[in-house]
Design goal:
The structure holds two protein chains of two kinds. By secondary structure, chain A is α/β, with parallel strands linked by helices. Chain A contains 15 helices and ten strands. In chain A, strand 2, helix 11 and strand 3 form a beta-alpha-beta unit. Chain B is of the alpha/beta class. The chains are: A alpha/beta, B alpha/beta. At the A-B interface, helix 1 and helix 14 of A face helix 10 of B. Chain B: Its main location: cytoplasm.
């Protein structure tokens, strides 16, 4: 346990000091941290899932508080909570099957009989719930069942016939943990491959001779464009530089290195460029592809500063506005939720040179108050009506469909990550 | 700790080791100044809250984020409080970040602190053993805590700069030139043209920097600020292709130092102030050829809180987020959650605020504070747990924790410390500072720029110099209980209360500190309150009057250690005072030397004593060399002798014994030429007996390697054009010079 504490503290400190950059890295590290929390959690005999959930919530609360602006942390915490609930449910469902089996095979097992009814009551209820629930979207899309927990558990249930009772119990307590860790591993896998997953769909969206407009630098966008290039699509990219951090310059450099025709424009030229390109070049199609900081439950996007302007320009000129977002960026909260901190104000030094303006900030003479105020917000909010399409690892979605996608990944009870007050 | 022999191999090893050692920092948790009195009588400056977080937390957070792994916190005044705070803080159990405290009660300056750090952890060895600097260094490397380059910073400095660049630069330079001992961080900041002071309230700073190498050539922060002129020594330009002079740079007081810096402080025991003595000392005296370089930062922030004005300015910079990520809404020290709302309003949780209260922009409101009806707060910082009544107006003020302000008070540009109670209707006028737990009586008006404290103002019977340091400790000794217990004060010493009532109104407790006449100007310039417009006009008008005053401006410096800019000492021709000085200086050096001869004082001690004389008389090594040589020759003459040959023998023996001392003042050809000229002068005036021996002694000096061939030849060339009577000695040594010339030609 002390290890975990050290790990958690370390991570909290890093988050606090804004030392981890990028939501992907944050998401991955959060998932890895939670995995080690789970693996080190001692499991009680009853209500194992509850114990796990409590442990995750306790850590999650700290992590979320450490950097409320980075929504990916909260998303991953909720995802892991959801995973635990799901695994618990599927184990319970399997236990009903196991119960039937064991009831037939060993009749002299009195203790087991005492144990089962408690379990089965919950299990039956859960099973009833799961039959009521419509099949998950993911299952429909991928056409494969979720991690094969059901067959695995039934087979081990079969094995356990010959074993002693205690062994059976430990294997059971171990199983939930094992399954959860398996699932979290999958989640980590998903996060680390999300760029490729999204990029795979590039050819479906980028067409020959199209002009792509993007703003700032997003790794997802970069991979997406490069994937299309690799598939021999020929297209051009307009990169708005993304003041004040000018990440667009970095993107332009990388795109040119990969052999893409790239044009760099200032942010303020976006309106002009979108219209101009349609006029001058004969049948060219314009497409805006951007990355996001987070996608909210209503389909709104929290994105690097300047994106709302791009979205409005796209709307004005009827250009499709496509947002790429890895699955860890889906946030189950609505932007009006009080937990959501929408923005972060960065240092004004990105905008102004302190030395040049130092005489404007001399408080020794005059009124002694600020006449010069510099605001440097990091994010913009793009309302859902301006977004035409979201592309996530699982495919393209409408903004209005986001809430449904989120229902697949998160449990409604976890929206507010807060431990129940200890009774 | 084994004592290694200083072989070249070992020193190479240690140089390699430098690259691997963890980055260390020395943090001085004491400013060794009294600008924050009376507050600092009760609490150390580094623990004063800045936007509700103690200053030292900003410094430590920055050091930690910049990759410093080990910090030595040097605590002096109120060391107990600092250590207590640190032990209970989060900083102590951080992985990869260790804090060690060093405690001292008798250090009165940054110089003392560094000397203590050096001495505490260094094997003390005698000067004889340590005659070679590198042996000393290796010994020191072996035993000391500081293993390599370190960051020197005081606990009241804020920054968010990255250290990687400046460290790389420093290391790179060290590889090329081992004399580059320090890199000073500077940044651009324009001084006000009206008041000739920086936005941090410090005097305008002039620097001369070599634009190619970034070497610092000149540093003057006590220039005649009203004239706005400086005079540079032309020697600065002698070997540089160009020099750029700046007045728009701010010294950030962040230094990357090599270990030699600590030993320099020990060698020059009169160095007190980091800038005034150490930096200027290195620049003016050219000690061992050590050099200081500068590193300018552009996008990141760094500033030191020197006075109340900089406290105000830096607080505002924090609120404006120039120090990001060290801003109130980022929990860099685990402080409680504060949210940034519209228009730069920072609000912690648990604030109870009346709906009719108006909280203006750029304010910070602390945890659990209550604000009453119709109260207006703007441009201010309010701490945790404050109770502010109705109809209070707070503007540009800094209210610390647990302060009670009753109804109808007005505070403008004031600082109010922890636990203060301001009774209803009281007014704090701009620039007022109210120290801990003071009670301001009803309707009382605290006048502008005044200070109120529970402690009485120390009487100024001593000279300013002693006051600057000595009282820090006496302040603690006299009033040990006040900072810890408030209840005690209210219960006992009713007499003091009665006395105090008259000073801060009915029902008030505290002493009103008076401001001295001469200090008032400084008060204005360095107060939290902006300088009023009419005062500004006055300042410009009064410029002429103040020029005379500025001569006394240096009164905060210990007079003996004050270093005048080089330029002054060279104008000695028409300055009688300076001439007197040189005569006294020569006499002193002679006396020192004679004492050394008779009492068998060690060579190193002689060097040290002459060094201190040099500093106190503001001389250069040229003067020392001349004076020393003069006393040596005089000794030779005064030793009984019967013939010129005996006199020559006397001279050679004296030279033989003391040549090391003399040699240490002959770093370059110029000094050597000075020795020849001095000798010439002696032969003509005071010691005519030598006149016949001139060529012989000269030859001898050449033989024992005191004088180089080049120096003698230069001297000869200089004398070539002189008048006939001046050429006597040149003729006398013609053969020798000819021989030298031939020898050098042969070499070619």
């Amino acid at each position: 346990m002390p290890d975990v504490h050290v790990l958690v503290n370390d991570f909290v400190v890093k988050l606090r000091k804004r030392k981890i950059e990028g939501s992907k890295a944050t998401a991955k590290q959060t998932a890895e941290l939670l995995r080690s929390v789970i693996s080190q959690q001692r499991m009680p005999h009853v209500n194992q899932a509850g114990a796990l959930i409590d442990a995750i919530k306790m850590v999650g609360e700290q992590l979320i508080a450490a950097n409320p602006v980075e929504l990916a942390v909260g998303n991953i915490v909720r995802r892991v909570l959801h995973i635990i609930r799901e695994e618990d449910l599927s184990l319970a469902t399997a236990a009903i099957g196991g119960l039937n089996l064991s009831a037939e095979s060993d009749e002299d097992d009195g203790v087991d009989r005492d144990d089962h009814p408690v379990l089965s009551a919950a299990a039956v209820a859960a099973a009833a719930r799961s039959t009521l629930r419509p099949p998950s979207l993911q299952a429909l899309l991928e056409d494969v069942p979720n991690p094969a927990t059901v067959p695995r558990s039934s087979s081990s249930g079969g094995d356990s016939e010959g074993k002693s009772k205690s062994a059976d119990k430990t294997s059971k307590s171990w199983k939930l943990k094992h399954n959860v860790i398996e699932a979290v591993n999958e989640l980590i896998q998903d996060i680390s491959t999300c760029h490729e997953q999204i990029a795979e769909q590039a050819v479906e969206h980028i067409h020959q001779n199209e002009v792509i407009l993007t703003l700032g630098n997003s790794r997802t966008v970069m991979e997406f464009l490069c994937a299309a290039k690799e598939k021999k699509r020929s297209f051009r990219v307009f990169v708005a530089e993304g003041a004040p951090r000018y990440q667009g310059h970095v993107l332009a450099k990388e795109l040119v290195a990969r052999g893409l025709q790239t044009t760099v424009i200032t942010d303020s030229a976006i309106f002009a460029m979108i219209s101009r390109v349609n006029m001058v070049h004969e049948p060219t199609y314009f497409l805006v592809i951007v990355g996001a900081h987070a996608v909210m439950a209503n389909g709104g996007v929290i994105a690097p500063i300047g994106l709302n302007m791009v979205a409005l320009a796209a709307k004005r000129h009827a250009v499709p506005f496509v947002v790429l977002a890895g699955i860890h960026k889906l946030c189950p909260l609505y932007p009006h939720n009080p937990e959501v901190l929408l923005n972060e104000l960065k240092s004004p030094s990105d905008l102004l040179d302190f030395g040049e303006f130092s005489d404007c900030m001399d408080f020794g003479s005059g009124a002694g108050s600020h006449l010069l105020h510099v605001v440097n917000p990091a994010f913009d909010y793009v309302p859902p009506k301006l977004v035409n399409l979201f592309i996530t690892d699982t495919g393209g979605h409408n903004p209005s469909y986001m809430y449904r996608l989120i229902a697949d990944y998160y449990s409604a009870v976890d929206l507010v990550v807060q431990r129940r007050p200890a009774s | 700790m084994g004592v290694k022999k200083g072989t070249t191999r070992v020193s190479e090893d240690t140089v390699e080791e430098l690259a691997r050692v963890p980055l260390q920092a020395i943090l001085l948790a004491d400013s060794f100044a009294q600008k924050f009195r009376p507050i600092t009588l009760e609490r150390p400056k580094v623990l004063l809250p800045l936007a509700n977080i103690p200053m030292i937390d900003y410094t430590l957070a920055w050091l930690e984020s910049a990759g410093v792994e080990e910090v030595f916190v040097f605590c002096c005044a109120h060391s107990g409080q600092v250590i207590d705070y640190l032990t209970n803080s989060k900083w102590f159990n951080q992985p990869n970040f260790s804090i060690k405290t060093i405690e001292s009660h008798n250090s009165v300056s940054a110089g003392d602190a560094l000397r203590l750090i050096y001495e505490q952890h260094v094997v003390k060895i005698s000067f004889e053993q340590a005659s070679l600097a590198y042996v000393y260094w290796i010994l020191w490397m072996d035993a000391a805590m500081i293993h390599g380059d370190f960051v020197l910073i005081s606990g009241d400095t804020l920054s968010n700069m990255s250290l990687t660049h400046v460290l790389e630069e420093h290391k790179e330079r060290r590889k090329k030139d081992s004399n580059a001992v320090m890199t000073m961080v500077i940044r651009k900041s324009k001084p006000s043209p009206l008041t000739r002071q920086s936005r941090l309230g410090t005097d305008e700073l002039f620097m001369a920097i070599d634009p190619d190498t970034k070497q610092l050539l000149y540093y003057e922060d006590k220039a005649d600020h009203l004239k706005g002129t400086i005079s540079l020594d032309k020697m600065l330009l002698a070997d540089k292709s160009s020099v750029s002079v700046h007045n728009d740079k701010q010294d950030c007081y962040i230094d990357i130092c090599s270990p030699e810096v600590l030993s320099l402080f020990t060698d020059n025991f009169d160095y007190q102030h980091l800038r005034r003595h150490f930096v200027k000392g290195l620049l003016v005296d050219d000690i061992m050829g050590y050099k200081i370089f500068t590193h300018e930062i552009y996008s990141s922030y760094a500033a030191r809180i020197d006075n109340f004005r900089s406290y105000d300015t830096i607080s505002k910079d924090i609120i404006q987020r120039w120090t990001y990520p060290f801003v109130p809404d980022v929990q860099f020290t685990g402080n409680s959650t504060t949210k940034l709302e519209r228009l730069g309003m920072y609000r912690a949780s648990g604030i109870i605020q009346s709906s009719s209260a108006q909280i203006g922009p750029f304010t910070v409101i602390g945890n659990g504070t209550t604000i009453g009806d119709n109260t207006r707060i703007s441009n201010s910082v309010v701490g945790d747990g404050c109770k502010i009544g109705s109809n209070v107006s707070v503007e540009g003020s800094y209210i610390w924790h647990n302060v009670t302000i009753e109804d109808g008070c007005t505070l403008r540009h004031a600082i109010v410390c922890d636990g203060v109670i301001i009774k209803s209707g009281a007014v704090l006028e701009p620039g007022a500072v109210v120290s801990f737990k003071v009670r301001i009586g009803q309707q009382f008006v605290v006048p502008s720029y005044s200070k109120v404290s529970l402690l009485q103002q120390p009487t100024k019977q001593d000279s300013d110099e002693e006051l600057e340091y000595a009282d820090d400790s006496s302040g603690i000794v006299e009033f040990p209980s006040i900072n810890s217990t408030s209840a005690k004060l209210t219960s006992d010493s009713s007499e003091a209360q009665l006395l105090a009532i008259s000073e801060v109104g009915a029902g008030g407790v505290g002493y009103l500190w008076s401001v001295g006449e001469g200090d008032f100007e400084d008060e204005l310039r360095q107060s939290v309150a902006p300088i009023p417009a009419d005062k500004l006009a006055e300042i410009i008008q009064a410029a002429n009057d103040e020029m005379e005053m500025s001569a006394q401006d240096g009164n905060t410096l210990p007079p003996s250690g004050e270093l005048q800019p080089d330029s002054n000492s060279f104008n000695s021709e028409d300055n009688i005072e300076d001439r007197d000085d040189s005569i006294f200086f020569e006499k002193e050096v002679e006396a020192t030397f004679l004492r050394a001869v008779h009492e068998d004082v060690k060579e190193d001690h002689v060097i040290l004593e002459v060094n201190s004389l040099r500093l106190s008389y503001n001389k250069t090594s040229v003067d020392c060399a001349g004076a020393l040589f003069y006393s040596m020759m005089k000794l030779a003459i005064e030793t009984p002798h019967s013939s010129t040959s005996e006199l020559f023998e006397n001279a050679t023996s004296v030279i033989g014994t003391w040549k090391r001392v003399l040699k240490s003042y002959l770093p370059s050809i110029d000094e050597e030429i000075e020795v020849i000229l001095k000798f010439e002068e002696m032969c003509l005036e005071s010691a005519r007996e030598f006149s016949s021996l001139f060529a012989k002694v000269l030859h001898h000096l050449y033989d024992v390697e005191i004088l180089q061939e080049e120096a003698i030849l230069n001297w000869a060339a200089e004398k070539e054009g002189a008048d006939e009577p001046d050429k006597v000695f040149l003729k006398q040594s013609e053969i020798f010079i000819k021989w030298l010339n031939e020898a050098s030609e042969e070499e070619d």
